[in-house]
Amino acid sequence: MKLKHALSLLVITALLFNCSSDSANPGSPDPTPDPTPDPTNSTKVTYTSDIASIINGNCISCHSDPPVNSAPMALTTYAQVKNYVDLIITRVNSSTNPMPPSPNDPLSDSDKSLIQQWKDDGLLEN
Ligand code: HEC
Predict the structure, then answer these.
(1) In whole angstroms, how far apart are CA 19 and each of 14, 28, 29, 93, 124?
(2) Nearest C-alpha to atom 14 of ligand 1 is from which residue?
(3) 32 or 84, which is more confident?
């Protein structure tokens, strides 16, 4: 009987201790709130957040839907851009046959590597 009593006292003490350590945190501000995620390794490249703006800014003047200026296809949706990604990577990196064609400025190196990274990350839409 005495042992049982001691045991339940132990259990109650353990429960109380648990509770008090739990309730020590709420209310007190976290000293390091929201550590800023590192975009270079925790965020994958997606069509919506990275690729659409590159295409819209550099390609849509011809690759609209319907395409104009003799461009052969539209690049206005995720499905279209994803479908052409290999050709797009080839052409934006080509020095002899680049996209966009001259006299347009070529894509920046960072835009080119974003498109490559998009493919490496699995061609995510969002
Ligand atoms: C000034 C108009 C114009 C702009 C801007 C332009 N293109 Fe083009 N694009 C064309 C034309 C015309 C062709 C067809 C002739 C050729 O392949 O060179 C073409 C062809 C292509 C092809 C080859 C398609 C195939 O089936 O062989 C790809 C891929 C492409 N463009 C991607 C792009 C991308 C990506 C951009 C933006 C970074 C872009 N283009 C910007 C006019 C343009």
Answers:
(1) 9, 16, 19, 61, 44
(2) 71
(3) 84
